[in-house]
Amino acid sequence: MANSDGIGDSGFRFGNGRLCFTFTATLGDRGAPVPLERLAVPGDLARWCVEAGLLDETPPAGAAALAGARRLREAIDRAAERVRTGASPGPQDAEILNDWAARPALAPQLDATGGLGWRQEGAQVRHVLALVARDAVDVLTGPMRSRLRRCAGPDCDGLFVDVSRPGNRRWCSMNTCGNRVKKAAYRQRHAQSG
């Protein structure tokens, strides 16, 4: 479960607005010399499925599932970057996205509180990844494609959809990257004045 800063129990980043970009954030600090791999072992992928609120129980996940998940994650990131800059997704990335999106996915359900829940008989990691791919296809082909942005936070470089009215949001999350930038600027101002 994510805390108020959008950070899950295992250090996953949530709260950037779209499932597909929450998933691409499993590789953190993309702009840093050494990015932070949050899907280091198959168990991390299984935990992400639960912490993202897509599965109630930790599913089995093996090395093949992890490798497939990482390929999908990077295909989403590359395709979104191309769309963001006005190009079409590369053919290999489109093929990966289309392959995953065509697979059986979790089905949306009303939960007990009237909110959104997910269900799939015998749900596995592959059902979650199919849902992630469908979300990516929706973003990359829908009206929000012109609102794709890269975070301006130092080292973050994460993707997000800017849903602000003026369309000039700079950070994937105000609670994480935006807050870090503002704190750093505050410290710098006070260091210079002291």
From TrEMBL:
Domain Zinc finger CGNR: 147-190
Pfam families assigned: ABATE (PF07336), zf-CGNR (PF11706)
SUPFAM superfamilies tied to this protein: Jann2411-like
Protein name: Zinc finger CGNR domain-containing protein
